[in-house]
Amino acid sequence: QAKRMGGDRVEPFRPAFKTVGSGRLELESDLRRAFARRELSLAFQPIVRIATGEIAGFEALLRWEHPKRGMVSPAEFIPIAETSGLIVQLGQFALDEAVRRLSDWQRLPGRANLTVSVNISSRQLIRQDLVNDVKAVTKRYGLKPQTLKLELTESMVMDNPERSSQLLDKLRELGVGLSLDDFGTGYSSLSYLMRFPFDTLKIDQSFLAPDSQPQRPIIVQSIVSMANELGLSVVAEGVQTQEDVKRLKAMKCEYAQSFMFAPPLAPEEARRLLQERHQTLPKAS
Length: 285
Ligand code: C2E
Ligand code: MG
Ligand code: MG
Ligand code: MG
Known about the structure:
The chain is an alpha/beta fold. The chain has eleven helices and nine strands. The radius of gyration is 19 Å and the shape is globular.
């Protein structure tokens, strides 16, 4: 079995592509052309400060509008980009575009400290010269590095702990934030992960699903308490009910990101939202 992420192994042939006549290879060559055809863009999902309902920042999420297939999910094309090496180009595009948009939005009144979070995949960590790319992009757009956050998952850090640790230390030296994405889906302990210089923890949405097991709230509570003790910011991903938002607020979970507050938005919509009102999203009472 191929490793889920990273490593240098070639993935085994997987015949299970849903759409007839457009297999992985076709999608890969389409993805190569997608840049030139301007089919790739970023959507921006608000990350909300639970106590006030304010937008603290956005997560930048890649979108691919395929001419025939319509929107292709990143869950489908990111793995293809990773095995084909296209992820480096994709990652550079996402980083540049996210920082470009953010630097524009930060000029809006009261928005100077708005953040943007950019997902980084394991192949990028291995191949892309992230440290120099981050340095260059923040300089290019005159961005305060603290307002840029990179999201990494525990599995990619655990795949290559030594190299990750070195790289993450260098990124922290530049001043950028580091978020641990999808926390709780891997098998590593928080205490082990704290050897790496993360400043934010994103609790995976599976812990906040309404049909989740009865012990889940206790797990969420203990993750939040531990993170707070360690001085980490916490983002609850995919929270779905007002009840849960209240609970999160009571446990001092500072941020939430979910369809309940706002879906990923086109950049123009995100900008409009920032301009319209200061507090735009439903406040947890
Ligand atoms: P992620 O980084 O964990 O991003 C959050 C995902 O959860 C997004 O899916 C978002 O649309 C979705 N989401 C947000 N709120 C809710 C909610 O209330 N309910 C549910 N069910 N889902 C919610 P999306 O945009 O489809 O992205 C999927 C994954 O693809 C991301 O998960 C990330 O791992 C990857 N990805 C997306 N953009 C990039 C990128 O630029 N680079 C890399 N390397 N990976 C990316
Ligand atoms: Mg993410
Ligand atoms: Mg996530
Ligand atoms: Mg995820």
